[in-house]
Amino acid sequence: MQNGGTPIWQAACHCRRTRFEVHAEIDHARICDCSICHQRGALIFRVPENALKLMTPLHDLALYQWGTGTAKDYFCKTCGILPFRRPRTVTPEEQAAENFSGWAVNLRCIEGLATLKLPIRQIRGHELALP
Ligand SMILES: [Zn+2]
């Protein structure tokens, strides 16, 4: 589970056709109120580009884009679960701190993670007018 201090989490969609690893210290969960996060109800955690290791090729997943077309929501073609996505926007703090350009992971796909014990970070996605 450990690799030089960074935990390695195994993750999969419901049918396990989509498998991936997350290399990160997961210390909170994001709940966003933008239109799609609100309907989906996912618990999200953002990781840098190289912290997500795909065992399933990206082209094996279905892709949903809407609005400005800058966010990419990936879905398992078999079970319909969203295991991760490319976010559309970053918060002002994130832009200042890290110029985020990684992945948003659906924490409910991570095996053995106590999602309901994580501190919740409320994200006011519907108020952000960033492209
Ligand atoms: Zn699946």
Label the overall shape. Answer: globular
Low-confidence stretches: none
Strand order of the largest sheet: 5-10-9-8-7
Q: CATH class, please?
A: Mainly Beta
Helix content: under 10%
Secondary-structure-based class equals mainly beta
Ions, cofactors and other ligands present here are:
zinc ion
Would you tell me which CATH topology applies? Metal Binding Protein, Guanine Nucleotide Exchange Factor, Chain A
Would you mind describing this structure in some detail?
By secondary structure, this protein is mainly β. It has a single domain (2-123), classed as Metal Binding Protein, Guanine Nucleotide Exchange Factor, Chain A (Beta Complex), CATH 2.170.150.70. Helix content is 10%, strand content 34%. It is built from 2 helices and 11 strands, in the order ββββαβββββαββ. The chain has helices at residues 35-40, 92-98, and strands at residues 2-3, 6-12, 19-23, 29-32, 44-47, 52-54, 61-64, 72-76, 84-86, 103-106, 120-123. The strands form 3 sheets. The protein has a 5-stranded antiparallel sheet, with no helix packed on it. The termini are far apart. The structure holds zinc ion. Zinc ion binds at residues 13-15, 17-18, 76, 78-79, 81.
